[in-house]
C-alpha cells in the first residue's frame, strides 16, 4: 500500500455512501414478540382517533357548528319567554316623550327622528309654550319654526313636516288629531312609526308595532325577524307577538335598547335575555352565537 493512503473505513453510524436506513421505533412490551408489537401499533392509533371529543363550551354535545336543526327562533314558547322577561324588567314603561295631548305627542315624535328623546324633551316645553295650539303652528311658515327646533337636527325637513301636519289637521280634521291609521297616514311627516306611537300611547289603540332604531336592532338580534325594512319588521313582529302586547312590547324593547342592548358594546353580562339571545355581535355569551343574528 502506498505510503500516506488509508483505506476507507465504515462510518460509525452504520450508514454507507448512498445508502439510507430507516429507524423503526416500536413500543416495548415485555413478553411480546417484536412482530406482534409492530402490528398492534396501527390498531392502537385507530382506537385513539375514534375517541369522542367533548363538546365546546356553549354548545350542546352532538350539535354541529351554527344553528341546530331543531332551533326555531320564533317558536311560541321562546317568544312567550322573551315577553315574560321583558314584563319583569319593564312592567309599566311608556313613551319617554313629554306631551300632554295627541298633537304634542305627534310633534314630539316627528322631532325625535334622528335625535334622542332627551334632546326633544329639552326643546318641546318652550316650543309648546310659544305655540300652544295646532292653529298656532298652522299659522307659521317653516322658516319661522326652524330656529325653535334647530337643535333636534334635520330642522328644515322637520319644520316643513310640523307646519304641514298642523295645516292638514286644521283644514281636514277640525284641529283634532285623528285616531285612525288611514287618516293619520295622510298627514305630512307621519309614517307608520309615528302613527303607531300616537295611536298606541295616546289613544290606546293597538294597530301595529312601533319599529324605531331600538326595535329594529333588538328584534334582529333576538332573531324575531331577518328583515331590514321597518315595515317588514313590523309585519313579522305582529305575527308572533300577541296583539294585546303590541303597545307595551314596543315600549319595553325601546327601554331595553336604551339601558342595556346598545348598538355598540351591548351590556350582555347584565341582560336578563342573555341566554335566549344568540346574536353574533354579543360582548359576552353563555350560549352559541348565530352568524345571521345581528343588528
Structural description of this entry:
This protein has 295 residues and is mostly helical. Among the domains are: 76-92 and 209-276, Helix-hairpin-Helix base-excision DNA repair enzymes (C-terminal) (Endonuclease Iii, domain 2); 102-176, Endonuclease III, domain 1 (Orthogonal Bundle). The chain contains twelve helices and no strands.
Q: Tell me, what is the CATH class of the domain at 76-92 and 209-276?
A: Mainly Alpha
Strands, total number = 0
**First-residue to last-residue Cα separation:** 91 Å
Helix content: 40-55%
Strand content: under 5%
What about the largest sheet? none
Instruction: Return the average pLDDT rounded to an integer.
Output: 85
CATH architecture of the domain at 76-92 and 209-276: Orthogonal Bundle
Order of SSEs, N→C? HHHHHHHHHHHH
Quick recap:
With about 300 residues, the protein is mainly alpha-helical. The chain contains 12 helices and no strands.
Amino acid at each position: 500500500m502506498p505510503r500516506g493512503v488509508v483505506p476507507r473505513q465504515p462510518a460509525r453510524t452504520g450508514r454507507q455512501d448512498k445508502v439510507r436506513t430507516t429507524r423503526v421505533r416500536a413500543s416495548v412490551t415485555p413478553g411480546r414478540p417484536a412482530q406482534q408489537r409492530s402490528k398492534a401499533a396501527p390498531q392502537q392509533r385507530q382506537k385513539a382517533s375514534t375517541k369522542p371529543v367533548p363538546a365546546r363550551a356553549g354548545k350542546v354535545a352532538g350539535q354541529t357548528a351554527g344553528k341546530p336543526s331543531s332551533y326555531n327562533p320564533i317558536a311560541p314558547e321562546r317568544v312567550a319567554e322573551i315577553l315574560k322577561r321583558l314584563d319583569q324588567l319593564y312592567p309599566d314603561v311608556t313613551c319617554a316623550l313629554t306631551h300632554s295631548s295627541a298633537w304634542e305627542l305627534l310633534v314630539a315624535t316627528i322631532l325625535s327622528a334622528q335625535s334622542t328623546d332627551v334632546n326633544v324633551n329639552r326643546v318641546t316645553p318652550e316650543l309648546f309654550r310659544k305655540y300652544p295650539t295646532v292653529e298656532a303652528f298652522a299659522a307659521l311658515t317653516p322658516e319661522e319654526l326652524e330656529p325653535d327646533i334647530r337643535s333636534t337636527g334635520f330642522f328644515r325637513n322637520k319644520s316643513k313636516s310640523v307646519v304641514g301636519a298642523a295645516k292638514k289637521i286644521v283644514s281636514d280634521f277640525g284641529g283634532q288629531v285623528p285616531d285612525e291609521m288611514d287618516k293619520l297616514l295622510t298627514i305630512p311627516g307621519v309614517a307608520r312609526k309615528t302613527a303607531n306611537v300616537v295611536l298606541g300611547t295616546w289613544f290606546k289603540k293597538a294597530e301595529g308595532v312601533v319599529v324605531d332604531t331600538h326595535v329594529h336592532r333588538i328584534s334582529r338580534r333576538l332573531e324575531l325577524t331577518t328583515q331590514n325594512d321597518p315595515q317588514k319588521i313590523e309585519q313579522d313582529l305582529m305575527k308572533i307577538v300577541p296583539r294585546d302586547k303590541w303597545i307595551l312590547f314596543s315600549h319595553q324593547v325601546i327601554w331595553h335598547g336604551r339601558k342595556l342592548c346598545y348598538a355598540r358594546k351591548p351590556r350582555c353580562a347584565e341582560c336578563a335575555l342573555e341566554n335566549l339571545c344568540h346574536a353574533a355581535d354579543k360582548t359576552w355569551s353563555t350560549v352559541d352565537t348565530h352568524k345571521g343574528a345581528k343588528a
